Protein backbone atom coordinates (compact mmCIF):
# COMPACT_ATOMS: atom_id res chain seq x y z
CA UNK A 1 0.00 0.00 0.00
CA UNK A 2 1.09 3.57 -0.49
CA UNK A 3 1.26 6.39 1.98
CA UNK A 4 -1.68 7.94 0.11
CA UNK A 5 -3.77 4.77 0.46
CA UNK A 6 -3.07 4.80 4.18
CA UNK A 7 -4.27 8.37 4.59
CA UNK A 8 -0.96 10.08 3.94
CA UNK A 9 0.26 12.51 1.35
CA UNK A 10 2.68 10.75 -1.01
CA UNK A 11 3.33 7.70 -3.15
CA UNK A 12 5.83 6.05 -0.78
CA UNK A 13 5.21 2.29 -0.97
CA UNK A 14 5.01 0.11 2.13
CA UNK A 15 5.05 -3.69 2.08
CA UNK A 16 4.17 -5.91 5.02
CA UNK A 17 2.61 -9.25 5.85
CA UNK A 18 0.03 -7.84 8.27
CA UNK A 19 -2.00 -4.68 8.58
CA UNK A 20 -0.39 -3.98 11.95
CA UNK A 21 3.06 -4.07 10.36
CA UNK A 22 2.06 -1.76 7.52
CA UNK A 23 0.41 0.64 9.96
CA UNK A 24 3.66 0.79 11.93
CA UNK A 25 5.68 1.50 8.76
CA UNK A 26 3.24 4.25 7.84
CA UNK A 27 3.46 5.76 11.32
CA UNK A 28 7.28 5.76 11.17
CA UNK A 29 7.19 7.44 7.76
CA UNK A 30 4.73 10.06 9.03
CA UNK A 31 6.98 10.89 11.96
CA UNK A 32 9.99 11.23 9.64
CA UNK A 33 8.03 13.61 7.42
CA UNK A 34 6.85 15.56 10.47
CA UNK A 35 10.45 15.95 11.66
CA UNK A 36 11.41 17.24 8.21
CA UNK A 37 8.53 19.74 8.37
CA UNK A 38 6.90 18.32 5.24
CA UNK A 39 3.68 20.33 5.08
CA UNK A 40 1.42 18.00 3.09
CA UNK A 41 2.06 15.19 5.59
CA UNK A 42 1.53 17.54 8.53
CA UNK A 43 -1.83 18.56 7.03
CA UNK A 44 -2.84 14.89 6.83
CA UNK A 45 -1.76 14.39 10.44
CA UNK A 46 -3.95 17.31 11.47
CA UNK A 47 -6.88 15.71 9.64
CA UNK A 48 -6.28 12.51 11.61
CA UNK A 49 -6.16 14.47 14.88
CA UNK A 50 -9.55 15.98 14.00
CA UNK A 51 -10.90 12.50 13.30
CA UNK A 52 -9.79 11.42 16.76
CA UNK A 53 -12.22 13.93 18.27
CA UNK A 54 -15.20 12.10 16.78
CA UNK A 55 -16.27 9.06 18.84
CA UNK A 56 -15.71 5.84 16.91
CA UNK A 57 -14.36 7.59 13.82
CA UNK A 58 -10.79 6.33 14.17
CA UNK A 59 -11.98 2.77 14.71
CA UNK A 60 -14.13 2.98 11.58
CA UNK A 61 -11.24 4.48 9.59
CA UNK A 62 -8.84 1.75 10.79
CA UNK A 63 -11.35 -0.99 9.97
CA UNK A 64 -11.78 0.39 6.45
CA UNK A 65 -7.99 0.59 5.89
CA UNK A 66 -7.54 -2.93 7.26
CA UNK A 67 -10.23 -4.23 4.89
CA UNK A 68 -8.49 -2.47 1.99
CA UNK A 69 -5.17 -4.05 3.02
CA UNK A 70 -6.74 -7.50 3.29
CA UNK A 71 -8.29 -7.13 -0.16
CA UNK A 72 -4.88 -6.60 -1.79
Description of the molecule:
With 72 residues, the chain is mostly helical. The protein has helices at 19-36, 39-52, 57-71. It has one domain. It is globular, with a radius of gyration of 12 Å.
Q: Supply the number of helical segments.
A: 3
N-to-C SSE string, H for helix and E for strand: HHH
Mean pLDDT over all positions: 95
State the secondary-structure class: mainly alpha
The Cα radius of gyration reads 12 Å
Largest sheet data: none
Q: Which parts are unreliable, with pLDDT below 50 for 5 consecutive residues or more?
A: none
Residue share in β-strands: under 5%
* Number of separate structural domains: 1
Distance between the termini: 8 Å
Q: What level of helicity do the residues show? A: 55-70%
| Strand runs, count | 0
Principal-axes geometry comes out as: globular
Write the layout of secondary structure elements.
Layout: H1 19-36, H2 39-52, H3 57-71
Offer a quick outline of the entry.
With 72 residues, the chain is mainly α. It has helices at residues 19-36, 39-52, 57-71. The radius of gyration is 12 Å and the shape is globular.
Amino acid sequence: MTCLQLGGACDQVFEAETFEEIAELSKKHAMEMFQKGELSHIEKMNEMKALMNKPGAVQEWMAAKKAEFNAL
